[in-house]
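Q: I have 444 residues here and want to know how they pack in 3D. Can you give me a structure?
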Amino acid sequence: MKKMNIGLRARIIISSAIFILTITVLSMAVVYYWSFIHFSTMFEDRVIDEYVLEQKEELGIYNEWILGTTTHSIDVVREIHGDETASVIQDRAEKQEELSKLYREVVDGKHLIYMINLDTKNGETIYEYSIIKDIYAEIFPKIVAGFLCFSLMLVVLSICYTQYVSKRLYSDLQKLGTYTRRIARKERTDDVVISTHDKQFENLLSDLQTMQDTIEKEDAIRQSTLQYISHEMKTPIMIIEGYATSAKDHIYPKGSMQTTLDTILTQTERMKQKVSDLLTIVRLESAPDTDRPEVIGLRSCIDDVFSLLASNMNGKKVSITLDPEHYLVGNKEKFKILFENLISNQIKYAQSLFSISEKVRDDCLYLYFYNDGAVISSDVKKQIFQPFVKGYNGSTGLGLSICRTIMRQQNGDIWLQDTKKGTLFVVKIPSGHWEPSLPPDYKN
C-alpha cells in the first residue's frame, strides 16, 4: 500500500486541531477531579466535622448549607426536598447497617449527595441526614457541551489561521523555488519580496542572492579567463607556429636562424609566464593557506626578490627603507609571490625612481610601494585588482589580482592610494602576520 505523504500545510492544521482538543480534554479532566471527586471528599469531611461539633444540639436544622441541609428530622427533609425524596432517604436509613454511609444518586429527578449517620439516644436509634444537591452532576453535561463548543470554535479558528499562515508560507516557498530555478538557469530575476517577513526565509533569500551574485562573478571571471587565454596565447602561438614553419623551409623572419629561434624562445617564455600566473591564482583561490606559518625577515625577503629583478632596472633608482628587525609570519612562498608582482610593476612603470617604505599603525604593518610613473586614472583604479581586465598602460594580467588574493587570505589588504604624482600601492599586514622583533621561539 502506497504511503500517503502529508504536506506541511496539512500537518500544521492537523497538529493544531489535535493540540487544541488535547488541551480541552485535559482541562475537563482537571475540572472533573477538583469539582467532583475532591468536592465529594470535602463535603464528607465537613459533614463529619459538623456532626462532631454539633451533636449535642437539639434535633432540627442546626446547620444551614448554601446548597444543603443537615438534620435529624425526616420531616425537615420532606419539607425541603419533597415526599418522594424523604421516602427514599428514610428507606435507605432503615435498611442501612453501617454507622455512616455516603450516597450519590438521582431521586425524584434531582441529583443528590447525602450521608446518613446512625446514633443512639436513650436506647433509641436516631438518624442524621446530611443532604446536598449534586449540582455538579446536573451541570456537568452543560460543562461538557460548553467545552466541546469552545474547542470546536478553537478548531475552526485554528484551521482558518493555519490556512492563512500556511498559504503565506507556501507563497514564499513558491517564490523562493522560482527564484532558485532561475538561478539554476542563470537567468536574472527581479528582487523577491518575502510576505511573511520570517527571519529564516529572509536569511535563505539573502543566501540565494549571494549565491546568484557569486555565480555571476564566477561566470564573468570564467568569460574573462577565456578572453584572456584567447588574447594572450593566440599571438605567441601564431608567432611560434609561423617562425617554426618558416625555419623548416630555411626561411628566417628575423634574418638568421639564431635570432628567429630567440624570438620563438621569447614567445615561449611569455606563454609560460601567463600559464604560471593562471595556475597561481587558481591554486590560491581553491586552496587557502593551511601550512604552518613561517617567520621571514621582511628586509631580507624583499632584497632576495629585488636581486632577481635588478637586471630590469635600466638605470632607475631605488630606495628601500625597511626596519631589518621586522619579521613576517606566514607562507614564505606567498609573500615572495606578493613582492615579486609588486616590485616588477614598480620597475616596469617607474620613470626614474621607485621606493619601498613602511609604517606601523594600530598594530598593523603598512608597506608602501611607490613609483614616479603615470598617475592611474579613476576608471582603471576601480578594476585594477580584478583578474584578466586591462590594467594601466593598457596591459592585462593577473599579478595584482594574485596580490589581493594573498593579502585577503592573510586577513590583510592591498589598495591603490590616491596620489597627485606617480603610483602608490599600500599593503596592510595585520597583527599576527608580522613581528616587530625576532620571536623568542624562532629557529633559523
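Q: Anything worth noting?
A: Confidence is low (pLDDT under 50) at residues 1-5, 42-49, 58-66. The radius of gyration is 48 Å.
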